[in-house]
Amino acid sequence: MSSESPVVGVLALQGDVREHLVALAAADAVARPVRRPEELAGIDGLVLPGGESTTISKLAVLFGVMEPLRARVRAGMPVYGTCAGLIMLADKILDPRSGQETVGGIDMIVRRNAFGRQNESFEAAVDVQGVAGAPVEGVFIRAPWVESVGAAAEVLAEHGGHIVAVRQGNALATSFHPELTGDHRVHSLFVDMVRANRAAESL
Predict the structure, then answer these.
(1) pLDDT (0 to 100) of residue 62
(2) What is the pLDDT of residue 4?
(3) Residue 95, Cα to own-chain centre: how many angstroms?
(4) Computed over its alpha carbons, how large is the radius of gyration of the chain?
């Protein structure tokens, strides 16, 4: 790992945090868990992991990180959300739970648990724009899908006629979990986004 490696946090309030830390390290980032506002201040980019989006939302408010996180995303900090993290990055949820908030950042409308319940989880090969080589093996666990996107958002992948990967500026989101497969190409794409943003800010 080089001294130029960007520092990428994983929001460590709930969900599959460890797997993302491993994937980010494999993608040549310095990976750190983030739970508090002061930890958020010391990173170049952030991953919002899978888990339970309502729980993550409420804990983010409780730990005081929701507002500073929104501010950093609005200011252009690169952010990547998987599954529940995708829901957190949506500007609108079709069927929000009571008290559920989002960080926002991507002009999209999402549907929670759209691909079915836990026992309907599945894996599928997904062609993701910007990821070279063979399709990415996507793990879909109670996965959301994106119902629609605004003009500023770019669709990177679809599965079964539904949008499952989106990018808008420095925000990236996937319905599936690439961190569970040992294939770190999506994390490498995100780390490249973080690196490019850091380079632009240093000019």
Answers:
(1) 95
(2) 82
(3) 19
(4) 15
Residue 160 — left, alpha, or beta (φ > 0 → left; ψ -120 to 50 → alpha)? left
Give the model confidence (pLDDT) of 16-47 as tens digits.
Answer: 999 999 999 999 999 999 999 999 999 999 99
pLDDT at residue 3 tops 70: no
Q: What is the pLDDT of residues 146-168, one digit of tens each?
A: 999 999 999 999 999 999 999 99
Q: Which residues of 111-142 are buried (b: 16+ CB within 10 A; e: fewer)?
A: bbbbbeeeeeeeeeebebeebeeeebbbbbbb
Backbone φ, ψ for residue 42 (5° rounding): -100, 20
Is 179 among the residues known to form the active site?
A: yes
177 with 146: CB under 8 angstroms? Answer: no
d(CA 13, CA 179): 17
Helix (H) or strand (E) holding 28: none
Contacts of 42 (CB under 8 A, 6+ apart): 7, 32
Q: Which of 20, 159, 177, 184 is catalytic?
A: 177
- The answer to whether residue 90 scores a pLDDT higher than 60 is yes
* Reported pTM: 0.95
Type of residue at 69: L
Catalytic residue among 19, 20, 159, 179: 179
Whether the Cβ atoms of residue 201 and residue 151 lie closer than 8 Å to each other: no
Annotated catalytic residue 177:
yes
pLDDT value at residue 18: 96
Which among 20, 83, 159, 187 is annotated as catalytic?
A: 83
